[in-house]
Design brief:
mainly alpha; about 130 residues; 3 helices; about 0% strand; elongated
């Protein structure tokens, strides 16, 4: 074979491989575009659901406030104090649950042998919940 034919064959092979690489690239790009579109659609739906939930919470808050003040005869100051107390309790409970979850994640078995010392002591976390 002549040198010119070998160069033409190499060029055709490189053209075919670059076309195949280009096809793979475009296929991957199309797949990524589809995934991005799906994620965008899911994000829009999630935003709509969050907005609907915010509206419902607002309406329920207004209803509960109206019931407490008008039907149960609560004074506004008493209602405010009750709400503050409930908020503090909710924050405390969420912090405790968070700490319990962290404790469960970091629950690594001790390298001590069982009964080597503190086997009879009670776990202080058990008293919290």
């Amino acid at each position: 074979m002549s040198l010119l034919k070998k160069k033409k064959i190499k060029k055709k092979i490189s053209d075919i491989s670059s076309a195949a690489n280009s096809l793979v690239f475009h296929t991957d790009l199309a797949h990524i575009k589809k995934q991005a579109q799906k994620l965008t659609d899911q994000l829009v739906k999630a935003d709509e659901r969050i907005q609907d939930l915010e509206i419902h919470v607002n309406l329920l808050t207004r209803l509960l406030t109206t019931l407490c003040v008008e039907k149960f005869g609560m004074r506004i100051g008493v209602l405010k104090r009750l709400i503050k107390r409930i908020e503090k309790e909710a924050i405390r409970d969420s912090q405790i649950s968070h700490l319990e979850a962290l404790y469960k994640l970091s629950d690594i078995p001790d390298k001590k042998t069982p009964g080597a010392g503190s086997g009879d002591k009670k776990d202080p976390w058990e008293d919290i919940s």
